[in-house]
Amino acid sequence: MAGRLLPSLPVRRGWLSCPAAAVHRHCARPPSRSIPAEVNIIADLVNLRAALEQNFDELRSLLDSCGDDRLGERLTEGEWSVREILLHLVHSERWLHPQLMLLRREVAPQLAIPRVGGVTLPDTESEPSLPELRWALTSVREDTERLIADLSADQLREPANLELDGEVLDMSLRTIALTAADHQLFHVRQIQRTLGIGSLP
User: Fold this and answer.
1) Which of 9, 21, 36, 179 has the smallest number of Cβ neighbours within 10 A?
2) Phi then psi for 151, rounded to 5 degrees?
3) What is the pLDDT of residues 78-136, one digit of tens each?
4) Which residues, listed in sequence order, are joined to residue 161 by a DSSP beta bridge?
5) Are the C-beta atoms of residues 100 and 176 closer than 8 Å to each other?
């Protein structure tokens, strides 16, 4: 399969400064195949969904401690504001969905593709309120979960060819979903530093 990449997100100030720029370019490169690893596929499945759920719960708790009046705060003049970070998370995860669909078609062709992306997200140059951002983040995460919900552990781990930025990579849905979880966690920590609060339990 040679899936085609949808148009990239608009480039924002500081976009490429995101250490998880893999989400913007190559999502995540799989580990070297020369490294042997024992894999418990049942634990693999549980850990994937647990990672997504745990990070999103932490993000929700963080938003509960934040108010609309703090969305414009930034650590320094060159950093993103809290609002910009949240918009980045919304659109980065939405950007992953076509890639998840392509891999899903390859590893589970007998399964229907769930309908995702049916809601209009706040524009990256807009100034949405906290409730709007919370709604957008929840909507995008629900789409991510729909794309992996009925897949077996084997299907989640099965690599397939995915074309990104002119390169064909061997990727799995698990790799991409865990990348999304790690990317979100990095920016949760960034928001915590910006607001001057510690990590939430």
Assistant:
1) 36
2) -90, 145
3) 899 999 999 999 999 999 899 899 899 999 999 998 999 888 899 888 899 999 999 99
4) 170
5) yes
Residue 70 tokens read as 């703090």
Q: Rounded to an integer, what distance in angstroms lies between the CA atom of residue 46 and that of residue 200? A: 22
The residue type of 93 is E
Pair 88, 24: CB distance under 8 Å = no
3 phi/psi in degrees, rounded to 5: -70, 150
Domains in the chain and their CATH numbers? 41-195 (1.20.120.450)
Beta-bridge partner residues of 160: 171
The pTM for the full model equals 0.76
Shortest CA distance to 3 belongs to which of 31, 21, 27? 27
User: Residue 56 has which token pair?
Assistant: 């999103």
Cα–Cα distance for residue pair 183/113, rounded to 1 Å: 25
Instruction: Map 91-112 to HEC letters.
Output: HHHHHHHHHHHHHHHHHCCCCC
pLDDT 10s digits, 11-50: 344 443 454 444 344 333 333 333 333 444 444 555 788 8
Pairing relationship of beta strands 160-164 and 167-171 according to DSSP bridges: antiparallel
